[in-house]
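As a warm-up, study this chain.
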Amino acid sequence: MPEWIEEVELELEALRATYGDDLSLDEPTGVVSMLLQPSGTAQEAYSQCLLQLTLPSGYPEAAAPGIALQDARGLGSSRLHTLQGLLQQEADGMLGEMMLGQLFECGRDWLNENNWPEGPCIFCLEELCTAGSSSGSSGSSGAYMRLPCFHAFHQSCF
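Now compare it with the structure written out below.
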């Protein structure tokens, strides 16, 4: 188990109290993880990913946590790269401060703002949304449905 300073222990305790079972801590490796999903019902979530933060020696004073996005669903490589960059920028700007909770919230906020289906409808093969269309609609097709595998389609195509 890594030797963490008391301040880090307090941060981890606060995270456990805040996120409960949504938070996972692998103490031997120092990896704190949480599944990031947009707010709302599961059916309204068009994307999700696992945010893993690796606590290096010297965190938080001398080093930011390592940031990894795993098991991404409904996020293309471009949006995944954008989220990774945003989280890294946030971490770099908070060096010297406790930041794990802020990184989880930043990731969740970004997913809320960017919660739209990506790619083509699995039936008609037309694009579901144009890039940057966070409104969740593209023209007349409007409403979407999502399968558990995160493939999405126009309701009108079903």
